[in-house]
Amino acid sequence: MKKTFFYNLLFVATVLLLLSACNNTDEVNHPGVAEALTPEFGDTFIEASIGDASTLLPVLASDSASSSINGLIYSGLVRYDKNLQIEGELAESWDISDDNLTITFHLRKGVIWHDGVPFTAADVEFNYQLYIDPQTPTAYAESFKQVIGVETPDPYTFIVHYDKPYAPALISWAMSIHPKHLLDGEDITKSRLARQPVGTGPYRFVEWLGGEKIVLESNPDYFEGQPYIKRVVYRIIPDISTQFLELQTGSLDYMGLSPLQFSRQTDTPAFRRLYNKYRYLNFGYTYLGYNLKRPMFQDKRVRQALSYAINKQELIDGVLLGYGTVATGPYKPDTWVYNADVPKYSYNPDKARQLLAEAGWQDTDGNGILDKNGQELSFTIVTNQGNDLRSKTGEIIQRRFKEVGVAVKLRIIEWATFLKEFINPGNFDATILGWTGGPEPDQYNIWHSSKTDPRELNFIGFKNAEVDSLLEGGRRVFDLQQRKVYYDRFQQILAEEQPYTFLYVGEALPAVSKRFRGVEAAPAGIRYNFNQWFVPQVEQKYVR
Amino acid sequence: MLSYIIKRLLLLVPLLLGITLISFVVIHLAPGEPTDLQTQLNPQASSELQQRLRSQYGLDQPLYIQYGQWLSRLVRLDFGESFATDRRPVLDKVLERLPVTILLNVLSIILILAVSVPLGILSAIQRNSVFDRTTTILVFTGFAMPSFWLALLLMDWFGVRLGFLPVSGLKSLGYEYLSWGGQLLDRISHLILPVFISAIGGLAGFSRYMRSNMLEVIRQDYILTARAKGLSERTVIYKHALRNALLPVITILGLSVPGLIGGSVIFETIFAIPGMGKLFYDGVMMRDYPLIMGILVMGAVLTLLGNLLADICYALADPRIRHSHQGRGSS
To answer: Is ipTM strictly over 0.95?
Structure first.
């Protein structure tokens, strides 16, 4: 009985996946199945990045430009496939012991580094040491601190032991593996590999002209076969308008469009002749978070009322021009962990007023703003500068709150100051921010009550004993169906409590040059099969 | 003259020290640290990492010790390492950006001089004529126009619609396969729009300046004398008036020496040119103290040297000033 319930949920999730997959293709003008082309080698893929990469050592990099380049140069033991299931990369297969405490990875044989040296289990062991070394200033040590020991019985077997079952363990080994023979005994922060990386991935490093471009070339020795596209060029173009002009001249092959560009500025025959457009949901959502240490937000009815007062669809239509979907919790709506069966807060100002009245907020002096014990229900929403979507969201919310008698000021602050003066010391009433996640559902760092210290991620001060135990429990089981029990309940509590008003999930809106074939949207996006993309010989643009 | 130069050079030292001290303090007054930005709101980063980074960067020391350490490295001409994740030496980062910045600035100054000097002179000679009024309007329109907006318009017009100039960047893809002449042409075509845009603001100020200088000079008695001698108008203007009207140009050129390494964030961002302006801006946004200080010091040194140079050149070019110095020296 219980089991069928989960199967049903899984079924719902699958349907959602399929729906989104269909949604993805409605803008796409594929060359058609009839055009059965055999992949051909050659051509260059040119992409623009707003910022320059910071370092091509993945252990040190945390910016998106570095990460996307590193993703082509390096490989991990495992990775997500197109449906966001974990599959082997440098590991051919793995076994998890019955007590969930030991993972044994069987590594691929015959893999070589870009400089020709063979890849072995010693490299993996070295990387484990590298990530947990206190001298390594990495942001990725957390999950490896759960490890109590590693073994390398032979060059193609790597065994890792945990003292408690740790469900995010397997995917944590998706981290990029660095070459031991080039880094052993060196100060990682001074390594020349930061600017001349050597990995095992599908592309090899060619050159990096600071602030100008980074060039990669396909790796003929790649263990899954040489990718078809010969070169990848990242041009650094800091201005979005310039990127868009370059796209219109055909000098770029890929660009993530803004909603405005996607809907209004690319609907020309000239553009459609050159590019295919795709849309799919991003990982990550935007929220309005309430500082729960503030007395006015400690009553759950106030938070629920504020959620009812916001018209989320209006935000999506106004800010994202419709390219997004309503968020109901911290998970992406088309993933297995998403729970659709939670309290939802559709726009209902009457309900909002009623809840506020129940909580004791009344407009006694007739100035249009609710008050209680002589104090008005007014607060400030802070958000960071440079994110137009967030400031627009704030303005729309401001107006809706005013309609139910809540006075809100909006402050937009430069990022470093925002963190230092507002978020770290907990010196804010409410904030509009976003989280970018991934397929792994563990949200311990954001919601657990032990993570409320300054600089930690539960900066709104959310404390809920049941959520704590659910988050701990969710980390301890590996089976997805069992995990879902924990995270379903977790989502229900969050929806009931509304520590955040979950606002919306935006869509990625990439345009890809029509030369490239084999592009397919999937839950993982469109880049997951980049190595299989190709350009028919006759259409190849950059022949040298 | 020599003792004057030495005196001026010696005066630079305390001045420079003061500048660095003030800059150092002001930069550290800005809220937020580089480590905040590298570790904050990252679900993976722990607060230990934050502490570790702070001690690696020396940010856990009191400010005066940090300043002392920075200064002691500076006197050995070591600008330190950037706080960005790449931790490259500041000097490397600056040197990488310097050639293109200097190239653009030199070209732009040349363009400004080449256009605004004749423009200013002609306007002055034909004061209040149709030509004068037209240039005044044009020049001020250029001055008032937001350069980023004009840049985008020109990029759209020449780059996208007409397609005969590249939109952004410094070189085309496949530049290395072009012939020698092809490479030159490629570079030039990439430079036309950025140089034009960066010059257009300066054009207005400089041509106006030139015009008023010229008007000033023409009113002088010695011009009247020259005319009275029966010299041709040509000789009067180009031989007697122009030389004196050009004198203040020296000051302006001297003042533009630090501008040679300074860039503009706006037009570098729009044209995707990796120059000093963007480097500095990104440094400030990331609170990359060594990089910010490095660029500020270089800028300060060049400003001071530029001023000195302008003073010296002025003295060399203008006998009145030269003689007054010598007079003072002998007394």
So the answer is: no
